[in-house]
Amino acid sequence: MLRRISRLGFFIQFLLFIAIGTLLWLPAFIEPQQPLRIVSEGPLYVLLVQVISWWPVIPTLVALLLTISLCLLLYYIGSVNDIHSRDNFLSAIFLLFFLSWNPALLLLHPLLPASLLLLFAIHTLMRIYGQQDPLRQVFSASLSIGIASLFYFPSVYLLLLIWFSFMTYRITTWREWIITLIGYLIPFVYLFSWYFWTDKLEIGLSNMLQSIEDPGLNLAGLSLIQYIWLAGLILILGISSFTLVNLVQDRVISIRRKSFIMMNLIFACIPLIIISGAPLKESHQIFYVPLSFAITGVISLSKKSTFFEWFVLAFVILLLTLRFLA
Asked: Is 182 exposed, middle or buried (0-12, 13-18, 19+ CB in 10 A)?
């Protein structure tokens, strides 16, 4: 069924994308919610909320635009790197659904702008393949992650993504590692300079320390239903990733290496989830990016994926059921 949808053509899939987005997001505009405020938010997110909160609908509109941008960028990354064809819009459809199925998260939250910057970093890392001297790409990727940390502070742990990618590409020269740290720290240099210039250095440091003062896996506020869909997410993420890694083993090396970059995101996000102390009911959404990528990759690269497709549909039905039960 999913394979048939992927072959319907870009225009029909795009109409399906619009229909899903309209159905899931319409209630959010009827009763718009205030932006999510959590301890792990960064100073740029605080500034963003202050700028756009003059009318209740604006934060919801910004959240929708960020979600759509994430979906379109994920589709672009998959198609331009030959993981799936340009006519296959499934990755964007899946990501839109996964980010929007829960009514409690149809609002602006710090993980949305952070995830968009993270996808820019992943796209840049994929462009390293074949480059003899990828210093510019390494700098751009690490700078993107540094800025993402100023929206969602636990993103500081995603520096591991770049280091894992170096291992994937077998980059061992010291210059790339040093430039990674330079690009990563530049946003914090500007932030601390601003705090110092405005005599808020002590307050700024206190806010940053507060966001990491209680590390660990934060399960606060999770209901039994939320435990169920989190368990389902872990299961399908593991199966999708394992299947995609097996499928790309016999593909050309460029597709194999670029697919591994996205899979590296899963390993890099584990410390973010477990160590950061950020609420799991929000932070788990970072896994929907590689999940949507992996599902689409499996459907595109596998000749026989009937069982996998039914498994994915079962997970989608589970989420829809929980949406109405919650």
From this structure: middle
